[in-house]
Design goal:
Rossmann fold, 2 domains, 7-stranded parallel sheet, 5-stranded parallel sheet, binds nicotinamide-adenine-dinucleotide, oxidoreductase, D-lactate dehydrogenase, D-isomer_2_OHA_DH_cat_dom, D-lactate dehydrogenase (NAD+) activity
Amino acid sequence: MTRIAFFHTLPEERPFAEQWAVRHDVEVTFFDQELHDDTLPLLKGFNGLSYKQRTKPNADDPFGFFRRLHDLGIQQIAVRSAGLDSIDLPAAHAAGLRVTNVPSYSPPAVAELVLAQTMHLLRHIPQFDERSANGDFVVSGLMSRELSEITIGIIGVGRIGSTVARIFHALGAHVLGNDIRDRSQLSDIDEFVTKEELISRSDVVTLHTWLDGSTFHLINAERLAQFKSSAFLINASRGPVVDTDALISSLEHGRLAGAALDVVEGEGTIFNYRFEGPIPDERYRKLQSLPNVVLTPHIAFFTDHAVKNMTQQSLDDALAIITGGTTPHEVHY
Ligand code: NAD
């Protein structure tokens, strides 16, 4: 029987993978652990691998690591996410491994969190929470704006960004878009403008680009200085798209009204862990202490629909390659 190892399993993924295993008559074995040097030997005897993790399996020697994986009889890595940040693709390909991702498991999952974050920021929920917790039920000083009055700027209008545009357009906001590709067919975007114009005109700026050399610290000190001081920044793309130190400085100096971050630089060392004492990340502790920041631990993808899609699609991809077939989700370097 074909055997697939399912690494770093979330409890919520397991029922979807089990349903799939029965349907395809494949044995899926679940491991809680991430894939690293110490857990690599667990793959002995398996035909395939599905995994999702935020840290690289072996950052020091990726070529050697993937060679050892291949020597165990593994031909492919089915990543259960769109982002491939944890895979050193040249090293995986050099070892003869075929890598797949799940490019689109549910754009609405992310877009709906952006809506929730926007509403939290616009309606000053964190500040009202803080007041209420201190027995202060005075409303003055925290008047909101309504969606039909605001301009939202979306940087990166691909699958998720265009879904954000659809939602906000339907709710009456004015939608500005920016992309490096021609997306002019998207009718939910009222105007396509430069990043500079988008940032200077928007009440909410939300980021939906992929992470690469050109988007690393796309929002840096220089760009933050162009925001309206009444504007909010939302990042549910990838942490390093925003320069965290520059963002903290802008928030502390009142040059930005607030931010909602589902992803942050260095999140791999804190998200998905439980800490008894202080969180071992000074910048995250700083963000947590700011009253106008909404933080979530990379949960935009975390809906039943999305988890089912990413789980079962990755297993479909693994099986396609193990059985000598192809899949449109194979990533070519
Ligand atoms: P996508 O590839 O469909 O869209 C990305 C868009 O960004 C493309 O249209 C691309 O042309 C544009 N882009 C790239 N560089 C740009 C730049 N410098 N300026 C302007 N536009 C640029 O990707 P997607 O599926 O919509 O995902 C978007 C982001 O969301 C990715 O970073 C992905 O990793 C992330 N994501 C996060 C979560 C989460 O749980 N927080 C879940 C899924 C995806």
